[in-house]
Amino acid sequence: MIYKSDRESKGMQDVLEVKHTDLAARLGTLYTKHGKVEVPAFIPVIHPVRQEIPIDIIKHMGFDLVITNAYITMKNYGKEVNKSIHEIINFDKAVMTDSGGYQVLEYGDLDVDHEEVARFEEMMKSDIAVPLDKPTGFAIDREKAVDHVKKTLDAAEATIKMVSNDDIIWVGPIQGGRYLDLVRYSAKRLDELGYQMFALGSPTEIMESYEFKTLAEMIIAAKSAIPINKPLHLFGAGNPLTIPLAVALGCDTFDSASYILYAKDDRYMLPNGTINIRELAYLPCNCLVCSKYKASELISLERRDRIVEIAKHNLYIIKREVDAVKQAIIDGRLWEYVIQKSLSHPKLMKANEVLIENREYLEEGTPLYKDKAIYLMSSIDQFRPEVSRFRRVVLSMSSRSDILLLIPEPDDHPLYSNERYNRIRSMLNHDVKIAYYSPFLGIVPEELSDLYPAAHHLTSSIRFKPDDFPTFKDTFFEYTKRFKKVIVVADEFMKNFIKSNALDSLIVLNDYDEITLCL
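Above: the chain's sequence. Below: its structure in token form.
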């Protein structure tokens, strides 16, 4: 699918081409005047004056878009710079410029205004530019948050009215922090002003505190207020832990200087976190850096050389994480990947609650059918979009039968490929509806047993507890109430379910051989 923005009415190219989706993630291409950028994309932060990793290395690693700071560039090169930002940092691909909002968060108000910064970004010929904003921060009280949102929106409105370079993709900075209503209001207003891309601000402190659930709620709040065709950037997201979750919730790009900042603290990135390099006896990575050194050799390097080498490794880890997420989108396995990654940290597991609470939102980007079977391994998988959608389809179907026969889920899918089902069906008339039950899928009627994902899933053969599956209870009662007689061949899960819900009206069988005695 191709999402085209309103800027095309001005004869300008601003196209987001989406090739694959899964959950709220999009794999596709963002077009800029300096070339195409595949999204989702990590955007390395480049210092315009003191860049410690040569820009050529970053380019050769496969990064087609970098971000640098317009305010710092202005302070070092002057307001009347006669070079493009590409010439200044020696990068011939796409460059995004941040206005200096992070410096506002760190040091207070700057000695420039939004107009000066915007003119400077135009003069430097940025590909993607962010107006000067007033970051909300994490610990700020609501009154100050409201003030920061207002100041950001005032500057954003003035900026979008004054800029003349239509080749630049201007990014609306969404503020509001942990106040989700302010995030939604900010995003909605920026869309009304005509911004073609958005950036969720103020998450750095939240991520440093590992408040991943709050971050997830902020992303959902922002996405709910902007059109689907407009990309969303996430500021300050450079921890490999956050990338799968952020992408799954709808972030298309994200930037960070974490690769170099961590290196300065001797922090070596792992796929599931970081560790001080001095704690490592081995380097658990096969990147070019880790293939070159032993752990002891990397530790013994001079500080400056060690920083550069660790920073290069950290970039490899981030890029590998992004590539893994992209492949998961293509494979239709992003849910599995996000849940697997959440096991890396207790607070990341807490963020799974946001996936559960917003499963209908996640359904929008989840394909109706996938080439591969889904995995149903733990109770959280009852909430994955494909499964929730299937239960809803089942409950929307009517039945002319008065009798329902429920059997345990067979090993073979769909039902008509199962020998035992065919034998039972041949003995019964068609006034009896046959369905199987599943802790995850709920009730699967025979006529829907070849529908995705009923016929395209693999389930763990472990003992599940009915109390862990509230969706099963809801589906069971809603579906069975339409029948006058319900007969159940009960396995251990169903026996426990019947016992805990006092279902005396059911005819419960312990064996398939008893079916004909009841009909």
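The longest strand covers residues 15-22.
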